[in-house]
Amino acid sequence: MSKQTGAHTHEEKGKNVPVILFFTGLALFFIGLFLGNMLLVKNILFSLAAILAGYHIIGEGFGDTYRDTKNNRKFSPNIHLLMTLAAVGSALMGSFEESALLILIFAAAHFLEDYAQGKSQREITKLLNLNPTEARRITDDGSIQTVSVEQLKIGDRVQVLNGAQIPTDGVVIEGSTAVDESSINGESIPKEKNSGDPVFGSTMNGSGTIVVEVTKDSSETVFAKIVQLVNQSQENQSEIASKIKRFEPKYVTLVLAVFPLIVLGGALLFQLTWAESFYRGLVFLIAAS
């Protein structure tokens, strides 16, 4: 038990490190903004802010590109590489503040995306945990037999004690109670149920013991259909994410190929200075990221 607790603690600490470094970098960035004419110190702080806040982005940009290129045996860059190159380019032009700001914004978006995905996964796990697993089936001789919900058949009678979870969809045939149906419809106010009223699996029985006649297989209950819809939605999102992931290297490669054309075209065709032309190329990289 202590080993598991220790492993969990180390895992949580590992998850917190990027967040701590991000806010440290953010603090350094704001300190740099208020240093007035201390240009050297400001640039150092902005550089540290970019490195601390975006080290994982920089690592994914260069490290993952190298690894994927090696594994795929072809150039396989990712979107993090674009933002990293744009930040490095800004720093090379002396715009350390803009470089740090780019990394901070991108890192913040990265954290928000991870948080949203994590929250979504936690909500799905929470939903699945509401799925009932056992039922108190009433046999022909009137005795109670504890069975899995999957063993219930249409027409079976189940006893639901007060405070217990209703195992499947059915209709009340004995007793009266108040049922919390928030797992189905989000309504937190318990609903009165009497003989002849429908009840739904995963909802919570409240004040009284009831007997329910099963009207649906466990795979056809309202709750089961909700779970199916959620799983289908997750699968669709995964398919979209996979397609984007496959397209990403091609997109980034195209952007990297266009970047030098913008720089050269600006300088040679539109008579811009090399600095101006390079800056326009950086703007393109940032927009493409």
From TrEMBL:
Keyword Membrane: yes
Gene3D superfamilies: Calcium-transporting ATPase, cytoplasmic transduction domain A
Keyword ATP-binding tagged: yes
Entry membrane topology: Multi-pass membrane protein
Gene Ontology CC entries for this record: plasma membrane
UniProt GO MF annotations: ATP binding; ATP hydrolysis activity; ATPase-coupled monoatomic cation transmembrane transporter activity; metal ion binding
Compartmental location: Cell membrane
Gene Ontology terms: biological process: copper ion transport
One protein family per Pfam: E1-E2_ATPase
NCBIfam families: ATPase_P-type
This protein's name: Heavy metal translocating P-type ATPase
Organism of derivation: Enterococcus faecalis
